[in-house]
Amino acid sequence: MTALLEAKGLEIHFGGVVAASDVNLQIHEGKNLAIIGPNGAGKTTFLNICTGYLKPSAGQVFFNGKGITRKSPREITRLGVARAFQIPQLFGEHTALENLLIAAAARERRWAPFTRLGQIPERAEMMHLLEMVNCVHVADRPVEELPEGQRKLIDIAVALALKPKLLFMDEPTSGVASSEKFAVLDIVAKALTESKVTSVFVEHDMGIVERFADEVAVWNRGEVLHRGMPDDILSHADVVRDVIGEEI
Amino acid sequence: MNLQLIALAVFDGVAYAALVFMVAVGLTLIFGVLRILNVAHGSFYAIGAYVVASVGGAIFAAGWSPWLAFPLMLIAAAVVGIVLGGLIERLLLRRIYDKEEALQILVTFAVFMILEDVQRLVWGVQPYFEATALQSLGNIQVFGVYYTVYQLILLPLVALAVLAGLRLFLRHTLSGRLILAVTEDREAATAIGIDTDKIYLMTFMLGAALAAFGGALASATTSVLPGIGADMIVLSFAVAATAGLGQIEGAALAALLIGLGRSFAVYLMPELEVLIPYLIMLLVLLWRPEGLFGVTQTRKI
């Protein structure tokens, strides 16, 4: 099995804080990988390095065998690595559909000073994406008016609009009411499968990890401590103490 | 103050507001998108005015139709915006987007100083006056006052057309929506792969062209001489700040407020003429520090 994304020997520190210390990780196509670990373990730093927002002091990242370590976030996005942030990065004053149309226009590099946004050819495709995340009924509402759960879904639809092969999600359920978390992630998981997108997500809620991850990687102090199947990892003594213990 | 004087003050104010608006709206557009306070904006105004006054003077002296003044203004504005604006954005501003604001202002101020000297080199220090466009439209009598059609009707109409056109462009077209998206959240725009470099370049060229267009229109109403760029940039800062930086519709209203304030001062308290725009700005900012239409920004992490 070849790796879709491979990180080799990543190093980075901020002052005295080691955020990545010899991080090696392979991400395989078609598997949803959960990243867990205590706060400050370097989880988000890893996402930032893989998506071009941070440059490691040493080490490399390969996507589909191609080095992307020194590329800009935009170049990496264009290669097929998308990202959903902890706080949805949506254009609040624009409607849900417009957010998707803007993403589609960016993907197709459209620049048309005399064309209406709603008339671009990708409109049907974007409506289909909204359907996939159960948000067709709010297509024409400004996203700033929508509840956090729907904003998360639209944020993921925006990421999927770029037709990525790999999607990084930073706490896809943070800010969503706990009663809705499973429902939201069920929709996300279905949309990811349907679009054949591999995902890597940082998550604090072990219930979510258990239900949605195919594999789990445990982070601590900038290192990958363990990696394996959810059942094995979540019952591992160190993990229970360092990660799950801290959550209680 | 009799009716005729009031009418005169209103006409002066409106005509002046239309010109200031063109410059201020470009300034505020550039600030809204690029987050750079462009001091060199006044130079685009001055150079637009110089180009039209000198080229216009030459072609009318050669016997060309006076109506060519109007297409000449549009062409001059586009050329100044695209060539000069494009060069400045590409070669200079692009390097300083991530730098601190003080440095950004210093750089654009340096560009302004350089361009001031370039104007003296190219056009000298003697005033240019080329009122063919103004004269070709004739006069009109309103409320017993004779006023030029150019200033009373054309300038306000052009300003309104620019306002409506910008609104339509930004709110409804694909390119406009991309600009708004970058304005709202540069990081999110980058995250979805919008080419922010291109958006910045286009916006800067558009803003510069608007200022040059303002200068082109103004050249028919006033002498073009060294220092007009400085006067205009200070005034359009006042307008943009009063409106709230980044506010396009607000800039129109603030320009009107300040234009009228200034023209009434000319008739009532001439010694306060220079002071009035800043007095208005001060009062507005004391009452609403974010400007008339400004919104306090909540920054995303």
Short description:
The complex is a heterodimer of chains A (248) and B (301). Chain A is α/β, with parallel strands linked by helices and 248 residues long.
Number of helices of chain B: 12
Biggest interface goes to: A-B, 35 and 26 residues
> Spans of chain B with pLDDT under 50 lasting ≥5 residues?
none
The CATH architecture name of the largest domain in chain A reads 3-Layer(aba) Sandwich
Mean pLDDT of chain A: 87
- How many strands of chain B? 2
- Mass-distribution shape of chain A: globular
Based on DSSP secondary structure assignment, what is the total number of beta strands of chain A?
A: 10
Q: What composes the largest sheet of chain B?
A: 2 strands, antiparallel
Q: Indicate the multimeric state.
A: heterodimer
Fraction of residues in H or I helices of chain B: over 70%
- CATH architecture classification name of chain B: Orthogonal Bundle
Determine Rg of chain A (CA atoms, Å).
Answer: 18 Å
Question: Which structural class do the helices and strands of chain B define?
Answer: mainly alpha
CATH superfamily name of the largest domain in chain A?
Answer: P-loop containing nucleotide triphosphate hydrolases
Low-confidence segments of chain A, ≥5 residues, pLDDT <50?
none
Proportion in β-strands of chain B: under 5%
User: Given the C-alpha coordinates, what overall shape of chain B results?
Assistant: globular
